[in-house]
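My current task is to audit a protein record that another person submitted. I have pasted the whole thing underneath without changing anything:
***
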Amino acid sequence: MRDIDLYAQILGLRSPWKVADVQLLRDAEEVRIHVVPEPGVTWSCPHCGRPSPGYDSRRRQWRHLDTCQYKTVLEADVPRVQCAEHGVVTVAVPWAEPGSGFTALFEALLIDWLKEASTQAVARQLKLSWGAIDRVMQRAVKRGLSRRESQAPEYLSVDETAFARRHEYVTVVTDQERGVVLHVADDRKTESLSAYYAGLSDEQKANIKAVAMDMWPAYISATEAHIPQAREKIAFDKFHVAKYLNDAVDKVRRQEHRSLLAVGEDCLKGSKYDWLTNPANMTRAQQNRFRALRDGSLKTARAWAIKEFAMGLWHYDSRTWAAKGWTRWLSWAVRSRLEPVKKTAATIKKHLWGIINAVVLKVHNGHAESINSRIQHMKSRARGFRNRERFRTAIYFHLGGLDLYPAQMRNR
């Protein structure tokens, strides 16, 4: 088989394009494939498909998959046509997307590599610029978002994740059932979440059965403004409630530890994480030590018992019984004479309606927490992002569940 025929088959070229010549440049360690159109072809506008007269042609090059150890470049004089509606435009070629300097096969390779490594690492290994790799990611996400069909998720998670220091955040909306990111917006304001809801139809909004979130007022306001019967669907996540309770226990421990140290007692020294760890995850030695602390008369032990009682209130199926259980807990917490616990109890009482929703609907924000963890890992691997736009692009690329590949790959 001649090299011309070989590359024509590898590239999958069909009429009106054909391989005219293949050059091996040993010194440059490069293979150049020259592709030409057949004579007498009538070209069409790539936008409207209308047959249009030729205008001129421009020499273009595309990086292709390497041939053995040699860099491979595709080269062609691509015609431009004079469309009555769109003016002078370049015709589409079957091996690459408009505006790309890579063939579809090479761009697909870059996308696969970007799923496994950072932009900097891929650029270094393939001897390309950081900007070239970044543009591939941007095009892939743009393609994926344009292809994403209108969705009607029933269970949403809303959470914020840190973009940088100084309390800079982005809002992330996740489909709980599919585990993919649906929306990324700057900040964690009401409009950040409202922008997602505004893109939904009335039918899609009505289809939502639950929205898991923390107790952030901006998210509550946005959901109440856009989602029908929102007060029955907003679910305040168990893990965030646990965080409030753990913080209260830790504050009680610190206060009591200072008081005990003042009289020469250090029984709470080094016990911080004992009060915050599930006893089931402790070693036998840790359990024995902790049992002595929790069974004593410490204020911290009382705060811990109140927290543990609350964490056992998530099993109810009945809204009525769930309300009774939490009301009983609130009564105990308020009468505890432990200021951090009483303060947390006031917060929980204010948001009890959403906590009971979470109990009865059996939803939580674990999916969003998992996504958040993956985002932070992604950010660490990239060693940070220059701006929010690139941060959003990376989140959609890795976690959006998008069809990222060039259109030409669908036909292979």
Summary: The radius of gyration is 30 Å. The beta strands are 17-25, 30-37, 54-67, 70-83, 87-90, 155-164, 168-175, 180-186, 210-213, 234-236. The mean pLDDT is 91.
